[in-house]
Amino acid sequence: MTPATLAKSGTEHGHQAALFAYCAVAYLHGFDVADEWCKTGVIPQTTPYSMYETPTVPALEWFHAIHNQGHGDKVRGANAKAEGVRKGVADTFLPWPNGGWHGLYIEMKKPTERPKSETAKGGVSDEQRRFGEYAKRVGYGWAVCYGWEHAVTTLRSYIEWGS
Q: How far apart, in whole angstroms, are the C-alpha atoms of residue 25 and residue 38?
């Protein structure tokens, strides 16, 4: 299933799943192969990947989601809060120092939430904006991405920055 298919629902969840599907292919085979897969639905024949080889994009190895919303009922929500879940924390994190940053946080939004003007909030809550300001102040990159393709472009730019 390609990222476009995963994102077809238009939900933030669908776009985040699409991003992680893309990154799984890019990690093993590189950004160009992942791009080709998105266009054709087929991963081009490359040298078979062996678990003993260095991945093509090692920066993506520990890229992960941060479960910080959608906890359902009051009991699960209370349990999540007790476990340390915080409102406003970004949806994903790339623990790869680059370009003067310690790592990169990405707050995912649906493409339909993209702001129409520079001063519009664009679906970002006050808590998310405060977290982003904090992250940048202490040396982390932070970006708001409207859709999986925007997030891929942001990740790729961050990883390739200075290389």
A: 10
- Residue 104: which residues within 8 A CB-CB, separation 6 or more? 93, 94, 96, 98, 140, 141, 142, 143, 154, 155, 158
- Which CATH number fits the domain that encloses residue 143? 3.40.1350.10
Summarize pLDDT for 54-84 with one digit per residue, the tens. Answer: 789 999 999 999 987 655 667 877 887 787 8
Question: If you search the block for the tokens 């985040």, which residue do you land on?
Answer: 16
The structural domain count of the chain equals 1
* Predicted TM-score (pTM) of this structure: 0.88
Which strands sit side by side in the sheet containing 92-94, from one edge to the other? 64-65, 92-94, 104-109, 141-146
Structural domain range at position 129: 3-160
Tell me the C-alpha distance between 31 and 25, whole Å.
8
51's tokens: 């678990």
